[in-house]
Amino acid sequence: MAESLESARNPAARVVSSGSFKAAVLGAILVGAVLVGLETVPAARESFGGALIALDRVVLAIFVIEVALKIAAEGRRPWRYFADPWNVFDFTVTAICLLPLHAQFAQVLRLGRVARSLRLVTALPRLQLIVGALLRSLPSFGWITLLLFTLLYAYSVMGVFLFGENDPARFGSLWSSMLTMFSVLTLEGWFDTMQDQVSGLARADGAEVDASPIAAPIFFVSFILSGTMIFLNLLVGVIVNSMSEMPGAEAADAKKPHEAPPTALSPLPSLHAPGAEAAHVTLLVERLARMEATLGEVREELREELRRRGST
């Protein structure tokens, strides 16, 4: 309890939790993203090169101050700052931008400055929820990708057998057939590819055209339906399911008064938030009180049932 009170009185914790500080960090992220984009324009570099460098240093200074304040907000346990993966990401990006890299490592510094734009995810909780759901879906993505590759391989082999003689540029080998079917999977120029197999390609030696007016439409339409429509729905379903299982989504739903029942338990705040220990203790005490009242009611019902059975 004493540590929670100390954290609540920590000036750095109050600054970090203030709305103005979060707005300043968000503004610095947006300005940094604009600066990185302007550096790709030669005219902007020639006209405002000094101003761009000065603004970039200001943005970097804001990020360094943010990291220092968040570490100081943890009080006597500064290592808790690194318990949050988003904080680790922020610290890594800021550290890369501070490294004294030589000219041969200038690309690493540029990549670090580009990565600062990705800090927009860490500044907006809703984006963190979406990214977390995507990362949570990676195992399922792997199985779906394996199934999609199996389908792609099977259709590529059939494409070589069916259209290899008519269109050797697209289906002459397994590798070229897989590249063609992958482009069909993206729905890029698939109709022209199918039409060439339906009508057949004219040969330089004057041989008879090998057309497939029935097999080609069935082949391509079935592949597009199974490879694009079904797998796209599978991916969307996996992402939606992962988002519904994210703790942040449950906490957001609990904030809606019309969806939460009157007796619903309040979600525990994150331990990584400044001054969260006091809120944890208060909520736990409330939950224990509710559990004790519920147990008391159950105890009275059991006693009444025992009296009833004893009288009978």
Structural summary, described in words:
- The protein contains 15 helices and no strands.
- The protein has 312 residues and is mostly helical.
- The N terminus is likely disordered.
- It folds into three domains: 122 residues, Voltage-gated potassium channels. Chain C (Four Helix Bundle (Hemerythrin (Met), subunit A)), CATH 1.20.120.350; 110 residues, Helix Hairpins, CATH 1.10.287; 48 residues.
Q: How many runs of DSSP E, i.e. beta strands?
A: 0
For the residues shown, what is the average pLDDT? 77
Please estimate the helix content: over 70%
Mind describing the biggest β-sheet? none
| Uncertain residue segments | 1-6, 250-265
Keywords:
312 residues; Four Helix Bundle (Hemerythrin (Met), subunit A); single chain; 3 domains; mainly alpha; Helix Hairpins; flat
Task: Provide a short characterization of the protein structure.
The protein has 312 residues and is mainly α. It is 75% helix and 0% strand.
What is the secondary structure topology, with strand pairs?
Layout: H1 2-8, H2 11-17, H3 19-38, H4 42-73, H5 85-98, H6 106-115, H7 120-123, H8 125-136, H9 138-163, H10 168-171, H11 174-185, H12 190-199, H13 215-245, H14 247-254, H15 276-311
Helix pairs in contact: 2-4, 3-4, 4-5, 5-6, 8-13, 9-11, 9-13, 12-13
